[in-house]
Amino acid sequence: MTINVGVIGLGAMGLGVARSLLRAGLRAHACDVRPEALQQFASEGGIACKTPAELGALCEVVITVVVNAAQTEQVLFGEQGAAAAMQPGSLVIASATVAPEYAAGLGERLAAQRLLFLDAPLSGGAARAASGEMTMMTSGPAAAYAKGEAVLSAIAGKVYRLGEAHGMGSKVKIINQLLAGVHIAAAAEAMALGLREGVDADSLYEVITNSAGNSWMFENRVPHILKADYTPLSAVDIFVKDLGLVLDTARTSKFPLPLSAAAHQMFMMASTAGHGAEDDAAVIKIFPGIQLPTAQE
Fold first, then answer.
1. From 50, 147, 171, 173, active-site residue
2. Active site includes 173?
3. End-of-domain residue from the set 165, 195, 216
4. 151 and 178 both lie in a single domain
5. Contact (Cβ atoms closer than 8 angstroms) between residue 52 and residue 82
6. 183: containing domain
7. Is residue 297 part of a domain?
8. Are residues 124 and 78 in the same domain?
9. Which residue, 132, 165, 198, sits at the end of a domain?
10. 233 CB contacts (<8 Å, ≥6 apart)?
11. Which residue of 13, 26, 120, 183 could cross-link 21, Cys pair, CB 3.0 to 4.6 Å?
């Protein structure tokens, strides 16, 4: 029997998720605030829904691929939200990076409506989303995994099961974001120093990516700087939010995170300077006295 599955949010990650579902032969529905995104999805064989409620009524598995807790709240419980329209026993897979305590509370609220829930943040970026090879950090009851097995295998290369307690997936995700944010900030700082000292930027990138100082984030983000292309694949403001969640979580247990705090301030500076909607590599723009690469004709 073909599963009806819906994706709410057709951004860089969500569109890749939806396409992976289609490629796996599932009956894929989608909802997005942008009509052009829905039209594109429908032209590829998907089923466009005007509201989350319409999608929820049609689907036994709903994946929310939105930015934060506020958007998760809106698409599930707001006016025309999906949760109230879903049949008992259906599954919600929530993939935004949120505070662990929010994820735990979300599981309780959905259970009260007789819905299953997986706390399932994503990692891997748009390219891995498009190829169905994302990493998912998940937690939830066995019944939720059983319900979503075909969906998870269609969209992810690695699905880590981190226990039954909702919120554990979100805890692991924010630790991942701690490293991602610090690595991006460190990559920007390294490139800024190189530019200040007159090192050729392309040569510096070549050397570092073949040396011990390399990181996945350096290798992935520095080309944005070299091309002067700050089209947001993951925006500066995402790390203002995510590193804020990291620090909030640590604050509750009075745990010091000095590198996270410094990186958070760097992204805050970039956002305040007007770069919040640019790619997170634009954090390099906070450094004074350097000449950044310009776009190649």
1. 173
2. yes
3. 165
4. no
5. yes
6. 170-286
7. no
8. yes
9. 165
10. 12, 125, 126, 279
11. 26
What DSSP assignment string belongs to 189-228? HHHHHHHHTT--HHHHHHHHTTSTT--HHHHHHHHHHHTT
Length of the chain, in residues:
297
Q: Is the pLDDT of residue 1 over 70?
A: no
For residues 178 and 161, membership in a common domain is answered with no
Same domain, 149 and 174: no
Interval 207-218: pLDDT, tens: 999 999 999 999
Tokens of 76: 């599930």
Place of tokens 């009075």: 254
Phi, psi of 153 (to 5 degrees): -65, -25
Q: How many domains does the chain have?
A: 2
Distance CA 22, CA 7 (A): 11
The CA distances from residue 65 to 31, 126, 171, 247, in Å, are 10, 12, 18, 23
Read off the pLDDT of residues 157-192 as tens digits, 9 standing for 90 and up.
999 999 999 999 999 999 999 999 999 999 999 999
The enclosing domain of 174 has a CATH number of 1.10.1040.10
Q: What count of other Cβ atoms lies within 10 Å of the Cβ of residue 273?
A: 13
Q: What letter represents residue 108's amino acid?
A: E
Query: Does residue 192 share a domain with residue 139?
Result: no
Determine, yes or no, domain membership for 154. Answer: yes
DSSP state of 4: E
Would strands 47-48 and 27-31 be described as parallel, antiparallel, or unpaired?
Answer: parallel
Cα 262 to chain centroid distance, Å, stands at: 22
Position 181 in a domain: yes
With 0-12 / 13-18 / 19 or more C-beta atoms within 10 angstroms meaning exposed / middle / buried, residue 252 is: exposed
pLDDT digit string (tens) for 220-260?
Answer: 999 999 999 999 989 999 999 999 999 999 999 999 999 99
Tell me the average pLDDT across 125-145.
91
